[in-house]
Every structure is written in structure tokens, then in C-alpha cells.
Amino acid sequence: MNVLNYIAGISLLFLVSACGDKNTTSDIKRETWQLIEMTAGMVPPSDQEAVLSMSQTYVFTPEMTFTKQQTKDGPTIEASGTYITKETSEGIFYTLKYTEGLQIVGSCTGNDSEELLVRNDGKLQNSWMMCDGPLLIYEKQ
Predict the structure, then answer these.
(1) 81-116, pLDDT tens digit by residue?
(2) Residue 97 burial (CB < 10 Å; 0-12/13-18/19+)?
(3) Using an 8 Å Cβ cutoff, are 92 and 118 in contact?
(4) What domain count does the chain have?
(5) 66 within domain boundaries
(6) Strand segments (E) across the chain
(7) 5-18 per-position pLDDT tens digit
(8) Which of 14, 22, 49, 75 could cross-link 45 (Cys pair, CB 3.0–4.6 Å)?
(9) In DSSP terms, which residues pair with 15 in a beta bridge?
(10) What residue numbers bound the domain in which 125 lies?
(11) Does residue 1 lie in a domain region?
(12) Would you say residue 10 lies in a domain?
């Protein structure tokens, strides 16, 4: 009898702890985000920057994979990998882990990961501007 109580207690603990997390990943459908605005660091965009110097898109799938395409002065470069999401008071953070196309990762650390934020206004932005990289804003298609 003690063994059954022990198993029931462990099972109940597992179920309660699993229900406590805010899992935003199960709600994700296939999403495509298109670059709509680019600002160099903290400086407001000039008239020349108003015309985007590159095209960039992210596609997120329910299988927790993503692709990123970038076209700038030549052929399109494609990158891909996996991602996780986390909901905060600022919005939903996407943490991307690249497995291919590392040359177009936009991050402060220079490694194979990148963070994006779906802001409360519904726009997606990168975090690269925190270390003087460009601020990139995307719109859901």
C-alpha cells in the first residue's frame, strides 16, 4: 500500500508542476515575420535608412524549428535551427539556436544563438541593438 501511495504522490507532484508553467510554445502556428524597419544603433533612421538595405524573414513552425532568410547585395542566405519561447511582462521572447547559416546570426555574443521579442504592440524586434547593433523590427505576415 505504501508503494501505491508513493507512486500516486510522485505522479500528482509531476502533474502539478507541469501545469504551473506558462507554455507558449503549444499555441504557436506557422508564423512568418518580414523585416519592416531598420535603425542603426540608437540613432534615429535617416532618409537613406528609411529604404531597407536588405530583406530578411523569419519563419517559425509548431515543431519548434525556424528558418531565417536574408538577401543583401547578392544571393539569399538561409539559416535554420530550433527555438524556445518564454512569456514575460515585456512580451514573448524567442531564443533561437542556429544549426546552419551562422553568418547571419544577429547577436551580441557572436555565437550560435539569437534572441527576439514579440512586443506588446505585436511587432517582433531583435536584441542586437543592446550592444550597438542595428535595431530590426519585423511584422507578422
Answers:
(1) 999 999 999 899 999 999 999 999 998 888 899 999
(2) middle
(3) yes
(4) 1
(5) yes
(6) 31-39, 55-60, 65-71, 76-87, 91-100, 113-119, 124-126, 135-140
(7) 333 333 333 333 33
(8) 49
(9) none
(10) 24-140
(11) no
(12) no
